[in-house]
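Deliverable D5.2: sample structural annotation.
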Amino acid sequence: MKKEYDFSKGKKNPYIAALKKQITIRLDVEIIKYFQHLSEDSDIPYQTLINLYLRDCTQKHKKLNMDWLSDR
């Protein structure tokens, strides 16, 4: 291993836009258990499944029906 490295000709990561951003989100326990159960069946980590589901919602422009809020 070298003592020093020359990064003067280095390039920025071209995939930086595709990287994920870590956040904190509070989810109901039932939601987590649901995706963990799906994870066991599919051998895909539950956090990846949540991300895939949310990506599907965004790609299909799904909107949450919140009519129940007006019933309060």
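Annotation notes: The first helix runs from residue 29 to 42. The chain is about 45% helix and 0% strand.
The annotation will be released with the project's public dataset once the embargo ends.
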